[in-house]
Amino acid sequence: MLQALPDLRGFARFLTRDVSAADDLVQDTIVRALASQNQFQQGTILKAWLFTIQRNAFYEQTRRRSREQEIMLDIELDMQPSTAAPSRQSARDAVQDLGELLWKLPDLLREALILVGGQELSYEDAARVCDVPAGTMKARVSRARAQLAELAAISSSISGEDAEKTSAESGGF
């Protein structure tokens, strides 16, 4: 596997066009290869197997990045504009607020929500990661979503009260 590292780096740089991203991709490839080394078939070419893993990892990362951009765009478009045009800053603020709310969840619920919602794992795969039954994972995600909605409502009402207080203090309505 060590002999294939220079070739993996070269292929990764071709795919990513970025030295840092290429190094990350090579590292991800090696980790995945070591994790699934029992799937390597003797008599086949190790380099080709590693390139396949690397290519699949690259496309998975590209799909994930694309999906993240779609979600960010959806968040930006779904937000109620406070001015004539929605700003990227307001979308970033909403994502930052969501991140703060996530940290208020209990560890087990936050973990479940991140695995299923953020990492797009199936309930079964997330359950395997956490070593719990799939039903337990579904329940945790459900509770996490409910608690997150409650926290968002509380946060929203507090923000509204602060805005009203500020408006009243400045003499506005």
Please provide the ordered H/E string of secondary-structure elements: HHHHHHH
Shape: flat
Could you estimate the helical fraction of the residues in percent?
Answer: over 70%
- Report the radius of gyration as a whole number of Å: 22 Å
The biggest sheet amounts to: none
Q: pLDDT below 50 for ≥5 consecutive residues: which ranges?
A: none
- The number of helical runs is 7
Strand content: under 5%
Report mean pLDDT, rounded to a whole number. Answer: 81
The first-to-last residue Cα distance is 69 Å
Q: Quick one: how many beta strands?
A: 0
| Helix vs. strand class | mainly alpha
Sum up the structure in keywords.
173 residues; mainly alpha; 77% helix
Description of the molecule:
The chain is mostly helical. The protein has seven helices and no strands. The longest helix has 36 residues, at 134-169. The mean pLDDT is 81.
